[in-house]
Amino acid sequence: MFAFYGSWKDRKDTFTSKPLPLECISLNLGAFQIAQAMLFAIEEINNSTDLLPGISLGYKMYDTCGSAARSVKVALALTNGNEVVSTLSKAPCTRSAQVQAIIGETSSSPCMAIATVIGPFYIPEISPFATCACLSDKTKYPSFLRTIPSDYYQSRALAQLVKYFGWTWVGAIRSNDDYGNNGMAIFTETAQQLGICLEYSLSFFRTDPPNKIQKIIEIIKLSTCKVIIAFLTYLDMDVLLYTLSLYNLTGYQWVGTEAWIFDSQTAEMDKHHILDGAIGLSIPKAQVSGMREFILDVKPLNSPGNKMFAEFWETLFNCKFKQSNTWIENQRECTGHEDLSGLQSSFTDMSLMPIFNNVYKGVYAVAHALHNILVCNETCNYNVQLDSFTILQHIRKIRFKTKEGDEVYFNENGDPPAKYEIIHWQPTKNGVVDFVTVGLYDASLPADKQLSLQNKSLIWAQNSKQVPVSVCSEKCPPGTRKVLQKGKPVCCYDCIRCAEGEISNTTDSITCVQCQPEFWSNERRDACVKKEAEFLSFEEIMGALLTAASLFGTCMTAVVAFIFFRHRKTPIVRANNSELSFLLLFSLTLCFLCSLTFIGRPSEWSCMLRHTAFGITFVLCISCVLGKTMVVLMAFRASLPGSNVMKWFGPTQQRLSVLAFTLIQVVICILWLTISPPFPFKNFKEIKDKIILECALGSTVGFWAVLGYIGLLASFCFILAFLARKLPDNFNEAKFITFSMLIFCAVWITFIPAYVSSPGKFSVAVEIFAILASSFGLLICIFIPKCYIVLLRPDKNTKKNMMVREVKNTI
Fold first, then answer.
1. Residue extents of the structural domains in the chain
2. Beta-ladder partners of 2
3. Interatomic CA distance for residues 377 and 361, integer angstroms
4. Domains 22-148+288-405 and 151-286+418-463 are alike in CATH topology
5. Burial bucket for residue 62 (CB in 10 Å: 0-12, 13-18, 19+)
């Protein structure tokens, strides 16, 4: 069964009378070639002494018009043995007419109709060109086989081909039949898995009214995609191409199926170069020796029962027989002896040779099955009763090689191995399309190796050498992520820059990856770079200034100590408890130096040292100041009649008090270091793009205990100094101690909020500043006035001047 006509006239049934027979139109020269290929195989088998010796195969041919209804009618006629519907016949067979197998049809929908009818009778049907994946369902079509791969593989291969060229935004047009609808359904499913979106998916059939095809043209014009997947039969493609030519709709990249991609008749129709650069899948090229010559010898077709031969001849040579119903005067007359050798026609073109080879394989498959059933060796067993089920079972199991070396076999679904050539349309200088093989697809290989394209220079639509771009949205570069546009397919998106601390290092990333805590995103947001470590270092300006201030304070303290040592026997030095003064100067030196432990990269030892050294040295310092304050206060109390206070607060008691006060702080620090000591800590939260290296307190209770104890001593010292500030003496040290402690307390009160609110290394700088400010306050307020008198006013540095009491004038 072949579609010698490609279409039929549309008719309006009134349902008041019996419908007229289908009126077929559009003679299909390709079907005549396929019929000749079948005859060639039969003749070759009948002339063979190895295959079916002594047995001749007969045949009957039927025109289905490409119609499912017509196909069902033919199938029923064959099943019932009714020969009235025969349109092409050879000489009558010597045996009773019994159909052993059916070759055809070449379209999927008619094949489904035929297979449904003959399936219960298990009559084998072998199609050379029906590719619908639905026909692989053996529960529905148990007797159907084919020599062309299933569209299950072709649809997946097409999707991979589209993905290979980076086309993610495509349109689709399909034949509105089982071939197109099933094939496009598999393509759509695979395309979605590969990230390909369809802007539109349209269907039509060649017998549809023109306005429907015109609507398809309008949709193509309004679309934004530049690639069109055409899952069409060659007959439907011809109809669509004609309409496209009317609108001169060029500039689109077409991707086609085996049904039309290598069809020379379609290429001849493309006068406006609409399909230039088309690419698609085709059955691998094949050559069968002797077949071309046999096809061009049309004598077997000119049989008495072949009513179509006259029309075939008229179409082939563009002439008319005089006895034709459509004869017009002055028209070129057909003689019936025209020469085919010099004719340039789609009939003489052998581009459909792969299909002819499939027909050839199908006929030989039946012959080999009969050969095995009849137990043929030198002769065959003619007494074997043939039945269709046995023939079907043997056809399914056969495995043989053709004379060209092609291996023929069927899998459990009745399908052959799936292999395709990738065909590319390249226009030549003379305007003829050259079908160039640019790659292969083999479904039997691993998924990543199934599709292989050669490094050939391809010429695309409008003679462009650049691969067409067909995307809904441009690719998102590294450093950005895709955000879907509302109400649109997944291929339509916006590119949003990754947030700080996040990166994407691939194109079209759907997410941004958070950098590890020690890393941060670079400016382009495509790589994580190690965060800059921030700490107060000696090299930076702020660290250098604080270091200089610390060293200056140390030097200044040393100078004051030197002056006091040189003038240690002078009244002003001796009057202010020189032993406590030197101890205070020593503790101030330690206070200035302990600030250096806060500068530089924190380590385990520096973290423990900085807070404990600061706490102990300041307590030692304040203990000395407290001792001096108490000496001043006790000295004046001792001058009262009958007072013996000084004997309870002599030099020994002073030393012990300083030692006791300091030991308390030492105990607090030891407990702190034992229970939960400070440790180096990487702070990732304070500043997002930097690592702050700081010393964690360990136990906050220990830290605030150290500070609290210093504050307690400072407050007590301030109160005592405040009480002694107005004692009547020419040189009362309590006044300076009061002022120094006022500075000390003010500095440390303001330190707390400043320390808490300062970020990163600035909190360390605030702490160092507080240490230096309070140390300078004590040094300047307590010792500078004495140095002034010692160096610049030696006249006041006398015992007499020290003993004179100030007399205040009162009114």
1. 22-148+288-405, 151-286+418-463, 480-530, 541-640+657-803
2. 63
3. 21
4. yes
5. buried
Q: What is the DSSP string of 572-627?
A: HHHHT-HHHHHHHHHHHHHHHHHGGGGSSS--HHHHHHHHHHHHHHHHHHHHHHHH
- Residue pair 236/175 in contact (Cβ under 8 Å)? The answer is yes
> What is the sign of the dihedral through the CA atoms of 775, 535, 710 and 659?
negative
Q: What is the Cα–Cα distance from 804 to 168, expressed in whole angstroms?
A: 103
DSSP label of 98? -
The class that CATH gives domain 151-286+418-463 is alpha beta
Per the CB < 8 A criterion, the answer to whether 778 and 588 are in contact is yes
Q: Are strands 519-521 and 532-534 parallel, antiparallel or unpaired?
A: unpaired
CA-based nearest residue to 193, from 137, 150, 155: 155
- Looking at the DSSP bridge assignments, the partners of residue 681 are 694
Amino acid present at 486? K
Residue 337 tokens read as 């002896």
What's the pLDDT score for residue 85? 43
Query: What is the CA 308 to chain-centroid distance, rounded?
Result: 58
pLDDT along the chain (811 residues), means of 10: 87 80 86 93 94 90 89 88 51 59 91 94 94 93 96 94 94 94 95 93 91 93 94 92 90 94 86 91 91 84 73 85 71 81 80 91 96 90 88 95 93 94 88 88 90 85 89 91 90 92 90 91 92 86 90 92 83 71 86 88 86 86 79 61 55 78 89 88 82 85 86 82 62 67 78 73 84 85 82 74 50 34
**CATH: 1.10.8.60, 3.30.470.20, 3.40.50.1820, 1.20.1070.10. Which one for 541-640+657-803?**
1.20.1070.10
Tokens of 620: 């030692």
Are the CB atoms for 607 and 623 separated by under 8 Å? no
CA 412 to chain centre: 37
Q: What is the predicted pLDDT for the residue at 87? A: 46
The top-level CATH class assigned to 22-148+288-405 is alpha beta
Q: Which of 454, 450, 500 is nearest to 479 (CA)?
A: 500
Paired tokens of 361? 């394989």
Contact, 5 vs 66, CB < 8 A? Answer: yes
Q: Which two tokens stand for residue 21?
A: 């027979």
Q: Which two tokens stand for residue 51?
A: 């295959």
Q: Are 402 and 364 in contact, with CB atoms under 8 Å apart? A: yes
At 95 the pLDDT is: 46
Identify the pLDDT of residue 84: 46
> What is the three-state SS of 615-675?
HHHHHHHHHHHHHHHHHHHHHHHHCCCCCCHHHHCCHHHHHHHHHHHHHHHHHHHHHHHHH
DSSP code of 501?
A: T
| 416, 409 Cβ separation under 8 angstroms | yes
C-alpha 106, offset from chain centre: 41
Distance CA 498, CA 480 (A): 5
Q: What is the pLDDT of residue 635?
A: 61
Structural contact between residues 133 and 155, judged by C-beta atoms closer than 8 angstroms = yes
